[in-house]
Amino acid sequence: MIRASSTSRRSAGFTLLELAVSMTVLAILAAIVAPPWARYRARMRAYSSAHELRAELTYIQGRAMDLEGECWVQVDSAGQYSVFVTDPATGSGELYRQVNVAPEGLTLSSPGKRLLFGPRGWVDPDKSDVAYDDSAGIRIYTITVSAPGVVDVPVRIYLNGRIEVR
What digits encode the pLDDT tens for the residues 150-162? Predict the structure, then answer.
């Protein structure tokens, strides 16, 4: 008769001490990784929202040229913007889409301001009141998407219609 040794029965599982040490090591690793991961996620949300805003601006720029009318983006508050397009029947602007970035923890610059594209697809400086910089010899409008304390992502709109995310 062969007897089962006591060591073979013991190696079938983990001791409470081994589990406690493993859990402690995992908790320490999670504490080290969590803050950079949260900043990374906030940064990616800001860049994603900035690229979405760029796509909206490009759309209404093309729509203004197609309809030979005016289309614009209105920054309603620090957490929301609205996109307006020209209604061909009436010639007035109608709400196309509202985007709320506040649930993502993001903010927008220029609350209460608008950026209007004219029939040629260029920014109309007389009807746009978004902040601009003309130190480089060309007027550049900027709407910044911010993840507070993490990153500011400027969406730059040049007077001639070029739009870029930096």
Answer: 899 999 998 888 8
User: How many whole angstroms separate alpha carbon 92 and alpha carbon 21?
Assistant: 68
Quote the CA–CA distance of 154 and 156 in Å, as a whole number: 6
CATH number for the 14-165 domain, one of 3.55.40.10, 3.40.50.10860, 3.40.50.300, 3.40.50.720? 3.55.40.10
Q: What is the pTM of this model?
A: 0.78
Helix-strand-coil split of the chain, %, nearest 5: 35, 30, 35
Burial (CB count <10 Å: 0-12, 13-18, 19+), residue 20? exposed
- Contact of 118 with 160, CB cutoff 8 Å: no
